[in-house]
Amino acid sequence: MKKFWLIIIGLLLGRWGAAQQTEEPFVHPGILHTEDALMAIKQAITENREPWANAYALFLKDRRASYQYDVNGPYDVVSRMGSQPNEPNLHKKEFEDDCLAAYYNAVQWRLTGDQRHAAKAVEIMDGYARELKEVINHDRELMASLCGHLLVNAAELIRHSDADWDTQRIAAFERMVREVLYPVIAEFATFANGNWDAACIKAMMTFGVFLDDREMFDRAVTYFYKGEGNGRLTHYVINEAGQCQESGRDQAHTQFGLGCLAEACEIGYNQGLDMYGAAENRLLAGFEYTAKYNLGFDVPFSTWLDRTGKYYHAEIAHHDRGKWRGVFEIVLNHYEKRAKLNPFYTRMVVDKIMPEGEPWTADHPGYGTLLFRSPN
To answer: Taking every annotated instance into account, which residue ranges of this chain make up the domain Alginate lyase (predicted)?
Structure first.
């Protein structure tokens, strides 16, 4: 009943165009997954129901979902790019895989009850809590947000369970999040294309829930509604038709930005906020527009100069058209199942690519058919 009233309050605030904020205690676990949602998935797998059984079989093929995963790190310094052009990055792929492995093993722990999965997630989290000191170079906001989002989702699932992770080690992990990851994204990324801001939003919300830091969480939610940069919802999905700030750049980055905003909305939903419904379901408009175009249909396009004044697009981009990222199940589940709307083109995409598989690098959680399609 409490969650019902929180959602009603969120709907009213969204209609008024205000940032949704509440002083209610955080729901735990309550980032990408709640206890009820995890138990429903577990039951669907146990009963061999489709499409969850097939989606879970695909998930099990990912080596990062195994408790036998060989950890690459931990590393003290990581980067997505070198400090100079053509200079190698510092452990980009290795760090991404470690963060995905922590998250996937935490999910496995909650679905199977096998302590070996919990131990693997804890091994990875403890290692980076102890060793990670810096995220550096040009793409640091992306690395801290994308990998941090996954790693902290793992921590949320382990912490709020009966896994063996004691308070001292949890405190060390919290310090790493506050002192290493959060400072990198604290001012968002107003200088960049909107996928950067969107990544920062979802990560800051994630950190806020895990740390029980209401101020941090509310900063991210407020930015989603009122932020200066390209990642604010109505700066990313620029009009009611659903055109996106990066629609004229390429289709891969457009799906990336939309997916990050969808994950932010899912976190909000799990905390009683209806960010999905903001600006008259503007996020859905963005997904429908992008899905329709990538399915081969024509869509309207307006010339657009972004908020930084650096990125001008005169026509919609053909680059990566028809290449799909696994970011559609999460929004289909909300708008079709919860909101009872008709996301026609998003449904067409999901029917075409189902089951969603592994993510592109560590941009998203991946495996959306398993993780974000509600069995109930």
So the answer is: 78-293
φ and ψ at residue 34, rounded to 5 degrees? -105, 165
CA 227 to each of CA 86, 219, 342: distance values in angstroms, whole numbers, following the listed order: 33, 9, 29
Range of the domain at 57: 1-61+227-376
Per-residue pLDDT tens over the stretch 125-180: 999 999 999 999 999 999 999 999 999 999 999 999 999 999 999 999 999 999 99
Please check whether residues 69 and 154 belong to one and the same domain. yes
Domain boundary among the residues 186, 207, 235 is at 186
**Structure tokens that stand for 196 in this block:** 């950067």
For 8, half-sphere exposure in the C-beta direction (CA atoms, 13 angstrom radius) is: 5
- Cα separation, 71 vs 173, in Å, equals 17
Instruction: Classify residue 201: in a domain, yes or no.
Output: no
Q: Number of C-alpha atoms within 13 angstroms, CB side, residue 304?
A: 22
Last residue of a domain, one of 162, 186, 210: 186
Do 148 and 231 fall within a single domain? Answer: no
> Which residues share a beta bridge with 30?
34
Stretch 272-294: mean pLDDT, rounded? 98
Rounded distance, CA 93 to CA 295, Å?
A: 30
Burial of 369 (0-12, 13-18, 19+ CB in 10 A): buried
User: pLDDT tens for residues 310-344?
Assistant: 999 999 999 999 999 999 999 999 999 999 999 99
DSSP string, 232-250: SHHHHB-STT--BTTTTT-
Give this prediction's pTM: 0.93
Q: End-to-end CA distance of the chain, in Å?
A: 18
Domain count, the chain: 2
Q: Within this chain, do residues 151 and 256 fall inside the same structural domain, yes or no?
A: no
| Same domain as 286, residue 330 | yes
